[in-house]
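Chapter summary example: a protein plus adenosine-5'-diphosphate.
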Amino acid sequence: SGARVRRAQNKRLPQYLERGVDVKFSDVAGLGKIRLELEEIVKFFTHGEMYRRRGVKIPGGILLCGPPGVGKTLLAKAVAGEAGVNFFSISASQFVEIYVGVGASRVRALYQEARENAPSVVFIDELDAVGRERGLIKGSGGQERDATLNQLLVCLDGFEGRGEVITIASTNRPDILDPALVRPGRFDRKIYIPKPGLIGRIEILKVHARKKPMAEDVDYMAVASMTDGMVGAELANIIEVAAINMMRDSRTEITTDDLLQAAQMEERGMLDRKERSSETWKQVAINEAAMAVVAVNFPDLKNIEFVTIAPRAGRELGYVRVKMDSVKFNQGMLTRQSLLDHITVQLAPRAADELWFGSGQLSTIWAETADNARSAARTFVLGGLSEKYHGMSNFWVSDRINEIDSEAMQIVNSCYERAKEILEQNRTLMDALVNELVEKKSLTKQEFFHLVELHGSLKPMPPSI
Ligand code: ADP
């Protein structure tokens, strides 16, 4: 222990680079005139010199505005794909996630990578999660967001070779963005992407039908007519579900009926998604309670500020906010142990799912945190922090990718066992927390620690602040 987080962060493999992005404008349907605007952005890359010579200012940032699922991410990828440049992406809700102080350093790392691998597109999903007008949010959550937002502003301003790195951000709420973000030279260009109309829906269905065995006489108009109000993501899903219908009946072609049935299911799903069932509230509660129960056992993660299952800006589920010692974090004084603890916390939802619902059940609820755990474990090994590869931070990675993955797998497995053990010892606490969360939706620090004192089997010390 005593090894430093810094080293893990300084690894060579860019963390935010999406490899193999091969999207073209032809993959995005129903754009109409918007396409012209996006083609211009591609030209900033391909004809950058020409723009500069003629004194045309290349925008630093482009804001794609519109509801979820209309293809904003897809479009950003298509810009990178058409221009043939690297694509870096991050979701702004990740900036404001769990640890105080992490947001700003993630922004810095993101832009450093993008610059080192220029030309590149930096894509920031759900910008409003971090870019809300300052001062609107009270309390330490607000301060954290301010630090992150300030860092983002610095990075947006920081380019001399404009046109080498272009930032594209998506938001559904351009109206609540901090005015500083939309000032000239920053996100000074807004493109609105509305929900598709009838013709747009037909085009989108057809794009997704390209790779599927469609019956000759499919009536796209019929499907488009009954999917009023749906976005590209939902239409793409209809094609997938229809294909599954076909497979189930061992047929070889997708018919209009398959599509209509799938559309009906999608419609029902759309309504269900508006209201959470009590079962879903409970699942989310188990998810968040598990993270809190495991975290409270670890010295660097136990300062839990609140636990919530209410969906917040950009987060499907709830979240657990841990206040971290930002001095410790910034100076790289986090121990190797606390990184392992972090991985363990991220695996808690998966472990809780196994304990409470029995293993083998697929759940999308813990998919994201399990993913965090896997990538953190990889970072851990790449940073030379694992016992086996101790100190080997600079070895040439691509030769040993399998070794690294299997070592990361082992770390994940042992952290998973640890998470399970802690949860098993704290079943009473878990039950109490889940009940309270379902009832109240959010627990304050005091309420949380009160329950920990009453029911926690390890009785960890409450935070000193
Ligand atoms: P957003 O970023 O606006 O939330 P996404 O780009 O993530 O939406 O869309 C999710 C998926 O839905 C895409 O990967 C694509 O398969 C499909 N999709 C959305 N809009 C379109 C579109 N205009 N044309 C084709 N596919 C689309």
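Key point: The beta strands are 17-18, 61-65, 86-91, 120-125, 165-171, 187-192, 304-308, 319-322, 442-444.
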